[in-house]
Amino acid sequence: MSTLIIECSDMAPSSRLGSSLQDHGHRLDVRRVHRGDQVSADTIGFDAVLCFGGPQSANDDSLPWLEGVMNCLRSAHESSIPVLGICLGSQILSRALGGRVGAMPDGPRIGWAETELTPTGREDPLQRGLPWRMSNFHWNRECVLELPEDAHIHAKGPSADIQCWSLGTRTYGIQNHPEIAREQVGQWAADDTDLLSQLGISAGELEEESDARFDEFARLTDRLYESISLLLMPIDRRSQVVARLP
């Protein structure tokens, strides 16, 4: 069995998180849906499903792959397969399960901003070892505005926007970008110069701030990756299933 990685943009791969999953024994099946790769609602053969970010809108039903990704994520959740959505992936996951996505309350958020764990997040096993407040990297025009029924908020951003949420014990969404590598900051800035100009953000200052913050960010997100690999989607579940076969 393998772990399904859904990528929606060449600019937003699984990056450091994908490498960490491999280090913990996951075999990755990467589907780049923006390039025409297909995903199916038949997810029973996967250990876990992750969906990553991109510049698209989760509300853009003209995207030829969007419905298929929503069906895939919904099926995985309903089959109790571990699911994680990041950025656009979180928004698509929320919408697939009945939530609502729209524009960020205070406009696009680019760069470093603090997120804070809620009381629920502070008690969640996935967040253990993380500070209640930490600086995360953001590159978002939209966010989850209303969660699916029975979902819980684990972290909020500066505008009380939803930054991390869960539904049940195996489905999570994260709005910010814990997966990024240092070089992606410059790549995204070069790719989105109009938005940076619109917001009055200097690419040079963004790089300087990233130099100052990235080591601590990497240390903390490495800890999150380990929790994702060992607690949310442990591959020893596969060997337990095999052991029960006649």
Features:
single chain, 246 residues, alpha/beta, Rossmann fold, 9-stranded mixed beta sheet, 8 helices, globular, disordered C terminus
Q: Briefly note the structural class of the backbone.
A: alpha/beta
**What order do the strands of the largest sheet run in, or round the barrel if closed?**
2-1-3-4-11-10-9-6-7
**Chain-averaged pLDDT:** 95
Number of strands: 11
Low-confidence stretches: 238-246
What oligomeric state do these chains adopt? single chain
Strand content: 25-35%
Can you tell me the CATH class?
A: Alpha Beta
Helix tally equals 8
The CA-CA distance between the termini, in Å, is 18 Å
Helix proportion of residues, in percent? 25-40%
Kindly report the CATH topology: Rossmann fold
Shape: globular
What does this structure look like?
- With 246 residues, this protein is α/β, with parallel strands linked by helices.
- It has 8 helices and 11 strands.
- The chain has a single domain, classed as Rossmann fold (3-Layer(aba) Sandwich), CATH 3.40.50.880.
- Helix content is 37%, strand content 25%.
- β10 and β11 form a beta hairpin.
- α2 packs across α3 and α5 crosses α7.
- The protein is globular and about 45 Å long.
Give a concise summary.
The protein is of the alpha/beta class and 246 residues long. It has helices spanning 15-23, 66-78, 88-96, 119-122, 182-191, 193-199, 203-232, 236-244; strands at residues 2-7, 28-32, 46-51, 83-86, 100-103, 109-117, 133-140, 142-146, 152-156, 162-167, 171-174.
How are the SSEs placed, and which strands pair?
Layout (H helix, E strand, L loop, with lengths): L1 E6 L7 H9 L4 E5 L13 E6 L14 H13 L4 E4 L1 H9 L3 E4 L5 E9 L1 H4 L10 E8 L1 E5 L5 E5 L5 E6 L3 E4 L7 H10 L1 H7 L3 H30 L3 H9 L2
Parallel strand pairs: 1-2, 1-3, 3-4, 4-11
Antiparallel strand pairs: 5-8, 6-7, 6-9, 9-10, 10-11
